[in-house]
Amino acid sequence: MKKIVKGVLLFLVIGIVVLLLYVKLALPNVGKMEYLSIKPTVSKLERGKYLANHVCVCVDCHSTRNWSEFSGPLVEGTIGKGGEVFDQRFGFPGSFYSKNITPSGIGDWTDAEVMRAIASGVSKNGNALFPVMPHPHFGQMDKEDLESIIVYLRTLEPIENVVPGSKADFPMSFIINTIPKEPHFSDKPNETEVVAYGGYLFNAASCSECHSKQENGKPIEGMELAGGFEFPMVTGGIVRSANITQDKITGIGKWSENDFVKRFKTYTDSTYVPNKISKGLFNTVMPWTMYGGMKEQDLKAIYAYLKTVKPIHNSVEKFVNP
User: Fold this and answer.
1) Does 15 map to a domain?
2) How many CB atoms are closer than 10 A to CB 224?
3) How many helices (H) and strands (E) does the chain have?
């Protein structure tokens, strides 16, 4: 009997070792990388610049933000340099650094390699990218939009900045290899299909990533878009994301279309001057000045989409400073 038990245990141990070796060495596997050579055009450059700065806001995580001012506007001369860290302080299972996406950082990457990183979450060297870089969302976008972003990234001012390598904690160091998937590109809906187009932009902006409370890097089921994701602020205290469901008491159910659009456009008004934030006072990670550059009709489309989101009652205390 003891020999049988030992044999079963040995079999299980060997099975687990084989499985871990497979996950660590054979994954991620997102299919064969297809050849891609993007022809730059003026329209692609303009579209890519718009998406990268005001919708997908790639420049948010891949640049340096000035946290001494409200909403942390971008520091001039840092666009795309990378180096921002997303670690255990934010509830992530490891330390993940944003890549230098200027030509100094990805200048030797092919278009296909950049596309694979954005849409599937696999870097040039084949390593899996933790989805704080929201590749699961980007992989559902229109491929032509992603090509436009790549065209724009190629035009960024090169900035020499060596970024530390990301490191996942155990067991995420194994699990991370199972996350990248082949992209499922979609066709961008016609702008006249307002709700569908708004849903497309909502996905491209990865709004759910910050507006859904998470545990170990995963959204808590049943609390999607109900807010509560915590961000420790450089200036002190903890800020939490807002509930953007249609709950009329704790969410944005009472907001009109005009309220919604104005909330964003306030920060791109020519008279707007960002408030200076002293240590310990309320600030926000919400990149208002970036999203505020979105076209008004695009903001209206996102509002139309949000009207279809189910209400979740979840009261969020925006800021605490222990």
Assistant:
1) no
2) 15
3) 13, 8
Cα(289)–Cα(268) distance, rounded to whole angstroms? 6
Q: Is residue 154 part of a domain?
A: yes
Q: 């709004």: which residue's tokens?
A: 207
Lookup result for tokens 């890519």:
48
List residues bridging with 218 in a β-sheet. Answer: 215
Per the domain annotation, does 14 fall within a domain?
no
- Output the CA torsion sign for 58, 59, 60, 64: positive
Amino acid making up residue 243:
N
On the 0-12 / 13-18 / 19+ scale of CB atoms within 10 A, 256 is: exposed
- Domain membership flag for residue 302: yes
Say whether pTM exceeds 0.90.
Answer: yes
Which structure tokens are listed for 262?
Answer: 């104005």
Sequential pLDDT tens for the chain (322 residues): 666 666 666 666 676 666 555 555 555 888 888 899 999 999 999 999 999 999 999 999 999 999 999 999 999 999 999 999 999 988 889 999 999 999 999 999 999 999 999 999 999 999 999 999 999 999 999 999 999 999 999 999 999 999 999 999 999 999 999 999 999 999 999 999 999 999 999 999 999 999 998 876 678 888 999 999 999 998 899 999 999 999 999 999 999 999 999 999 999 988 888 899 999 899 999 999 999 999 999 999 999 999 999 999 999 999 998 7
Q: Are 289 and 71 in contact (CB under 8 A)?
A: yes
Question: Looking at residue 228, what DSSP letter applies?
Answer: -
Full residue range of the structural domain in which residue 116 is found: 42-320
Number of structural domains (the chain) is: 1
